[in-house]
């Protein structure tokens, strides 16, 4: 889109024997055809009207006939839809990362605005179409900022997204003296650049609840291992029960001496993949996670209702192991693990670190 009334189309010429091209234009019921010379690869159209949606398709032709049509392309000469789900996360003392959902298919760029305390909004950047991330830098430590984003094209500017407010980080205190009780990481002290925008708020809550381990607070889209999930399953048990877990006295495993794994084993939250091996680096599936969460709740509070009735049949239920079906139903009933498109639970799909943290956090929210 070059202006509210002018657009440019570009295409690739795959033939060597065309006499020309015919461009078919449809604008809601009225069809037009425009002709272009051989070897043409672009066309500027100045007959378009703001507010309309046009569909274009191209044909090459010669004396023997016309080719099959190209792909159709739709050009919407309308103001873009507003972005939503704006999230602002402090990633440093002078940096903030923004993420949002792009709801438009016809934006040419996004306009980002910032408001300092007591001030008004002002534009800080225009970034390219299809963007959903932006890092604002050069900020002042410990200062609150508010952001908003709009989508733009030559036709106009969308309404703004909702506002998102955040305070930049302050310098961290020096390391505690030897023997001091370690403190959990603060939500603002984590680099969320590798996390999905939808997951950041729940990860921050999980940190505040002390439901995470340091080792999974990075590379959030990396698949989580059995060992890593064991560690946060134990934290879930301790948060729900109010008790401190203790490891089994005699380690049955030859491939792990992780004390959190031994706590989970002692509690009956997890068992080995054989009598002597645990498989700490093995990736964990959605159905395995449902089972571990179920067991952690069961041992944390024997009075918790573990009823899973009332859940409908999943489209891929035949893929769920018999030893996990009740636990998968339980997780779905309590909105801990939601289904995917088509009523699927994808029981064998592996889970990322951010997904694992969110599942533990949602369990805590439901049963704390």
Describe this entry's structure for a reader.
Helices cover 20% and strands 23% of the residues. The protein contains six helices and 15 strands. The chain has helices at residues 200-208, 226-241, 259-267, 286-300, 325-333, 353-367; strands at residues 7-10, 20-26, 31-37, 42-45, 53-62, 65-66, 73-76, 84-90, 96-101, 109-116, 122-128, 133-136, 144-153, 156-157, 164-167. Strands 2, 3, 5, 6 and 7 form a five-stranded antiparallel beta sheet that branches. Strands 10, 11, 13, 14 and 15 form a five-stranded antiparallel beta sheet that branches. Helix 2 (226-241) runs parallel beside helix 6 (353-367). The radius of gyration is 28 Å and the shape is globular.
Summary, kept brief:
The protein has six helices and 15 strands.
User: What is the strand content?
Assistant: 15-25%
Series of H and E elements: EEEEEEEEEEEEEEEHHHHHH
* Distance N to C terminus: 53 Å
Structural class, please? alpha+beta
Q: Tell me the total number of β-strands.
A: 15
Largest sheet: 5 strands, antiparallel
Residue windows where pLDDT falls under 50 for at least 5 positions = none
Radius of gyration: 28 Å
Average pLDDT score:
87
Work out the helicity level.
Answer: 10-25%
| Form type | globular
Q: How many DSSP H or I helices?
A: 6
Question: How do the strands and helices of this protein lay out in sequence?
Answer:
Elements: E1 7-10, E2 20-26, E3 31-37, E4 42-45, E5 53-62, E6 65-66, E7 73-76, E8 84-90, E9 96-101, E10 109-116, E11 122-128, E12 133-136, E13 144-153, E14 156-157, E15 164-167, H1 200-208, H2 226-241, H3 259-267, H4 286-300, H5 325-333, H6 353-367
């Amino acid at each position: 889109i070059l202006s509210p009334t002018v657009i440019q189309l570009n295409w690739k010429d795959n033939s060597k024997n065309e006499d020309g091209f015919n461009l078919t234009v449809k604008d809601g019921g009225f069809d037009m055809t425009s002709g272009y010379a051989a070897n043409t690869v672009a066309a500027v159209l100045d007959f378009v009207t703001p507010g309309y949606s046009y569909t274009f398709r191209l044909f090459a032709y010669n004396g023997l006939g016309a080719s099959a049509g190209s792909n159709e392309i739709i050009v919407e000469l309308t103001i873009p839809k507003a972005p939503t789900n704006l999230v602002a996360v402090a990633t440093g003392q002078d940096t903030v990362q923004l993420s949002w959902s792009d709801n438009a298919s016809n934006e040419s760029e996004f306009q980002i605005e910032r408001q300092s305390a007591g001030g008004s909004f002002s534009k800080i950047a225009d970034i390219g179409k299809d963007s959903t991330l932006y890092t604002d830098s050069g900020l002042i430590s410990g200062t609150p900022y508010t952001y908003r984003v709009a989508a733009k094209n030559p036709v106009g500017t969308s309404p703004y997204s909702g506002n998102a407010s955040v305070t930049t980080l302050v310098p961290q205190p020096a390391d505690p003296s030897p023997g001091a009780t370690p403190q959990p990481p603060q939500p603002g002290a984590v680099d969320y650049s590798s996390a999905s925008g939808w997951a950041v708020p729940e990860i921050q809550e999980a940190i505040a609840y002390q439901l995470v381990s340091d080792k999974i607070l990075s590379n959030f889209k990396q698949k989580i291992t059995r060992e890593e999930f064991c560690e946060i399953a134990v934290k879930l048990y301790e948060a729900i029960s109010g008790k401190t877990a203790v490891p089994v006295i005699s380690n049955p495993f030859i491939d792990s001496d992780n004390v959190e794994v031994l706590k989970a084993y002692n509690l009956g939250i997890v068992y080995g993949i054989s009598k002597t091996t645990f498989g700490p680096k093995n990736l964990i599936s959605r159905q395995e996670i449902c089972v571990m969460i179920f067991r952690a709740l069961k041992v944390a509070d024997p009075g918790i209702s573990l009823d899973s009735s009332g859940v409908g049949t999943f489209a891929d239920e035949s893929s769920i192991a018999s030893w996990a079906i009740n636990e998968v139903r339980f997780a779905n009933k309590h909105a801990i693990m939601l289904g995917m498109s088509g009523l699927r639970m994808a029981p064998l799909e592996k889970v990322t670190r951010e997904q694992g943290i969110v599942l533990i956090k949602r369990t805590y929210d439901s049963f704390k």
